[in-house]
Specification:
By secondary structure, the protein is an alpha/beta fold. It is about 45% helix and about 15% strand. Strand 3, helix 2 and strand 4 form a beta-alpha-beta unit. Helix 4 packs across helix 5 and helix 8 runs antiparallel to helix 9. It is globular, with a radius of gyration of 19 Å. The two termini are about 20 Å apart.
Length: about 260
């Protein structure tokens, strides 16, 4: 697979894991048009590469991402903002349409659209001392990048409104207690812990993971009847996969399964 990379986004594939590193540390990895478009293109490449089974999004330097670039705020015309958020929306949809797990590895701050980028992932792993803040109202804006969709579904409408209205940082322990963060690791071993977590996922039945991701996301906007039928149809497909056969055989033989994502 040909990798796409710019100075604002580093792309590296190690084994079955694609690493996407936000690379504007001088601005706490605030989003740039290049970063957004390259990340979307990389996610689409991961979708078409059978060797990639997990994606990790992380940030270079002191933080995950500060979200929107404050240097450009107050200078853009409405049409430019409309176009910029359209590109961000395309990235979010590409992430949700990827039939492979995406891990957001958060350290330092995840603020504004950077927080929402993490919410668009499937798993959020955070380093100790991390902080999360939806800072939009501090500058008189609303949340974008899917935050008004993801957060209320994750923690409830009333709690989400409180975080959005007040725009105050919450620490990693509160984020975990709210269900925003999945796991917390020490900062000094964070990269190793995230890599080990991703490699464990990558060794699993990734075809099944893809279906689980799709149906779990669909459940937020579907009825019970619809999800039950989707489960039934999908299960009838999944039993034909090589991973299912390997899972059954390894269980009978009392050994660790060797899933191939097929």
């Amino acid at each position: 697979m040909q990798q796409t990379e710019t100075k604002d986004l580093l792309v590296n594939i190690e084994g079955s894991v694609m690493h996407l590193t936000l690379n504007r540390p001088e601005s706490l990895n605030a989003f740039s048009p290049d970063m957004i478009s390259t990340m979307k293109e990389s996610i689409e490449q991961a979708k078409n590469d059978d060797h990639v089974r997990v994606v990790i999004i992380s940030g270079a330097g002191r933080s995950f991402s500060a979200g929107g670039d404050v240097k450009t705020m107050g200078k853009n015309e409405p049409v430019k903002v409309y176009e910029h958020i359209g590109k961000l929306n395309e990235l979010v949809l590409a992430m949700k349409n990827l039939d492979k797990p995406i891990i957001a590895a958060v350290h330092g701050f995840a603020a504004g659209a950077g927080f929402n980028l993490a919410l668009a992932s499937d798993i959020i792993l955070a380093a100790e001392e991390s902080k999360f803040v939806l800072s939009f109202t501090k500058v008189g804006l609303i949340s974008d990048g899917g935050g008004l969709y993801f957060l209320p579904r994750l923690i409830g409408v009333h709690r989400a409104k409180e975080l959005l209205f007040n725009a105050e940082p919450i620490d990693v322990d509160e984020a975990k207690s709210l269900g925003i963060v999945n796991q917390v690791f020490p900062l000094d071993s964070f990269k190793e812990e995230v890599t080990a977590y991703a490699e464990k996922l990558a060794a699993g039945p990734s075809k099944a993971y893809g279906f689980i991701k799709k149906i779990a996301d669909q459940s937020l906007v579907s009825s019970l009847d619809e999800i039950l039928e989707l489960e039934r149809i999908t299960q009838a497909t999944v039993i034909t996969t090589q991973d299912h056969r390997e899972g059954v055989e390894s269980f009978k033989e009392k050994r660790k399964p060797n899933f191939q994502g097929k």
